[in-house]
Specification:
Elements (H helix, E strand, L loop, with lengths): L17 H5 L1 E3 L5 E3 L9 H8 L16 H6 L6 E6 L9 H4 L2 E3 L4 E3 L13 H18 L3 E4 L11 H10 L4 E8 L9 E5 L10 H19 L12 E4 L3 H4 L5 E8 L3 H7 L2 H22 L1
Parallel strand pairs: 3-6, 3-7, 7-10, 8-9
Antiparallel strand pairs: 1-2, 4-5, 8-10
Helix pairs in contact: 5-10, 7-10
């Protein structure tokens, strides 16, 4: 949930925590490791760095283009995707950090917030982390290079401007920030948040971000059965100019509010591991649909 500032949390500043500078890549087991920023077909030097430094006696690796059968079996081969799990589990411990104001191009806002929770205490940060790690495994299985904006759910931050910077540095083909809302208990349904033109960094990718948003909306609605939001946006689409993670992005990026954690029905679904897997499956299909159309 990103609509209202809450007290809490700290952030791994660039130079203090590796994830704030370059993101983290998740293994098939869900553990995170520092990730090199690269795409298929980039410079040999970048590829050498990603594969490990070769000795002076070893010939430089050659670039091999994926065959048609490989691309069909792993359709996201060569694509870079950044997943931004909203908030962080330790944010509440460091209000002096997350309340610090940062520049988001058209205004200043708090570094981050604590996020929301269900009425019985299941936090948005825990929900977004679980969904995100499930999503990473699905996307990696399809051949994508996937980076996370935070390495676990124990720390603080990173700030909203750094979350955008991680996607930019990775030159992501698509980026998505995963959230759940904390609205009135009677409100329900999901919505997609997309950027507006602000005379800032995001302007060139506003159109592609909308295409990404529509693709994810359609797949999420179909895959989860959750309704469009009853309280914000039109047909689950909402455009905003006050979110640093969008304003500062130079790659196609969206936010998704997967539903309302304060609504009893949606809270029960979010606490169910099988339903969180359905959410991840749906998000993966939406990202794949967008990237296939963008090729």
């Amino acid at each position: 949930m990103i609509r209202r500032p809450l007290a809490a949390a700290a952030l791994a500043l660039c130079g203090v925590g590796a994830v704030a500078c370059g993101g983290a890549e998740v293994s098939d087991t869900g553990a995170s490791t520092p990730a090199a920023s690269h795409k298929l077909g980039r410079s040999a030097a970048t590829q050498d760095q990603a594969a490990g430094t070769a000795s002076s006696e070893t010939a430089a690796p050659t670039t091999r283009t994926a065959t048609a059968s490989e691309t069909q079996a792993r359709p996201l081969t060569g694509q870079v995707i950044v997943i931004d799990p909203g908030h962080n589990g330790g944010n509440w411990k460091h209000p002096e950090v997350i309340n610090r104001q940062v520049n988001i191009s058209n205004q200043k806002k708090a570094c981050d917030t604590t996020g929301t929770s269900t009425n019985d205490g299941y936090s948005e940060a825990a929900f977004t982390w679980d969904v995100s790690t499930r999503l990473v495994r699905l996307l990696r299985a399809q051949g994508a290079t996937v980076k996370l904006t935070r390495p676990d759910n124990k720390g603080t931050g990173p700030c909203i401007n750094q979350r955008a910077a991680i996607g930019n540095s990775a030159q992501a083909d698509a980026a998505i920030s995963i959230h759940a809302d904390g609205a009135a208990p009677s409100a329900h349904g999901f919505h997609i948040i997309m950027p507006k033109k602000i005379g800032g960094p995001v302007d060139p990718v506003v159109g592609d971000s909308r295409k990404l948003g529509v693709a994810v909306r359609d797949a999420f609605h179909s895959g989860t059965g959750l309704p469009y939001s009853t309280y914000i946006g039109s047909k689950a689409l909402n455009f905003r100019s006050d979110l640093g993670g969008l304003n500062l992005s130079t790659v196609p990026k969206i936010f998704i509010e997967c539903g309302n954690m304060r609504n009893a029905g949606e809270a029960a679904k979010f606490k169910d591991a099988a339903f969180r897997q359905r959410i991840a499956d749906s998000l993966a299909k939406g990202l794949e649909a967008y990237l296939a159309a963008a090729r």
